[in-house]
Amino acid sequence: MAASFAAQVLRGRWFMAYGSFLIMSTAGATYIFAIYSKDIKSTLGYTQEQLNTVGFFKDVGANVGIHAGLFAEVAPTWLVLAVGAAMNLGGYLMLYLSVTGRVRPAPPLWLVCLYIAVGANSQAFANTGALVTCVKNFPESRGVMLGLLKGFVGLSGAIFTQLYLAFYGPGGGGDTRPLILLVGWLPAAVSVAFLATIRIIRAPRPPAAARREYRAFCAFLYVSLALAAYLLVAIVLEKRFQFTRAEYAVSAAVVLAMLLLPLGVVLSEEAALFRINKNLPESHAPTLPAVATLATKPPARPAAAPAAEKPATASSRLLRALRPPPRGEDYTILQALASVDMLLLFTATVFGVGGTLTAIDNMGQIGESLGYPPRSIATFVSLISIWNYLGRVAAGFASEALVARYRLPRPLLVAAVLLLTVPGHLLIAFGVPGSLYAASVVVGFCFGAAYPMILAIISELFGLRYYSTLYNVGNVASPVGSYILNVRVAGRMYDREAARQGAVAAAAGKGLTCAGARCYRESFLVVAAVTVGAAAVTLALAWRTRAFYAGDIYARFRDGSTGVSANGNGNGNVDGEEAVEAKQQAVVDGRR
User: Fold this and answer.
1) How far apart are CA 542 and CA 544, in angstroms?
2) pTM for this one?
């Protein structure tokens, strides 16, 4: 009995979800670049411009993951995670060896940029392997799952900081180079530990287990909220008091213990499922072949279609390939990229999420130009991190409830979040005294809230068959917006105002500096305006998809699991999904 229960736990969906949470909690190493960047600059003798170049390649590596999605389309999940672990270890280890002087001739700038780009790009493989697999295993709760997973990513920076101070920080941490080593080995070790766990689970589940699903996600939410609250308290205390090495170790031990708490939820859900499966009447078992019939019966229908389409030219075949199926069905990658819905969503992400990234990336210089002390600037960063997490989990749960109960289009909720961001941008633009605290909360929350909903929209409108690639297409939009609004708008306007003031930094290599509310006024008025435009574009998408969201968008997954026996542990939705996918693919093949 105990052995069979243990085997069920290790093979189950809930332990797979727990493994994904741990992978995500170590997948945000790019958020703590500011902590160790000063040691890269000092040990390698870089100017500020060269350091910014390294940071740019870090952002490129972290956000460009289309190749990871394409690789996941043809490779098993364990191989995707293994490749990501190897890239993470190799890239950051070489960066650590370069910064510590263990590489004899100091590497050129382009090679250091390559090291950090490879290390940061491992994040795309971790997201694709763990996050996309979780969405496919929990298709009816994808909004909630995306919110939780992205929430753990948001907390990862604070988690890394606590572990670094306990493992390597002497008396509170001075030399941050060991943090690069921690960033290199810890995410790789976690990914390798769950290689056999993170996978698509095809075993069906009983309706009673499906009804318990939301309560389990709420339990995961409460654990993550407790972890976020503890991290926030720890950050505040560590800023006010000087901690010893032992006190940092105790704080890190509490963090690790809280990361183990979700195991209690896993065991509770698996125990309930074990009892349900044990008491399930055997008369349910013969219903399983019905799914196979659904999956194999339809392909016979369109067999005669190719004969009727003899004179097919290359242009007609291309038009048919680009002709999209109904919303919610499985688009091909080409159909999704060529669709108006994707164009609207991509545009809204570029200028909506790109604006919040511009605020986050410039928060340090914004605070400096407005005369805030360094301790307050550190507080802004912590506020953004915590509220970023809260936005992600709140949007995941709230949007899922609103879509399910009131049939509200999810793009409408994204538009509301983008409009909520505008007051935060205006507070930055006008530099109201003390307002940067509120702006940090608003911007952090809205950035966190928008992202999971955008990724959920992609899965809902274009299906899950090619979600590994389409998910990464959505990720590319935010750095594009950040480059346009941050580099081309905010950076240029800041330098122009600094030149007008005639203020030159005393320290070499820092270039022009600017003081006063005018430094970012014009640029953030532009950001606020384009954010309103992005909200308008999202409203247009909501209008286009109102009929789709008015229906039951998850009906296909429930229909695929209701007639299936619960003879194991896992997600019956995947079987139902694959059956419908087989049916759709047969129709597409017949048309071609």
Assistant:
1) 5
2) 0.75
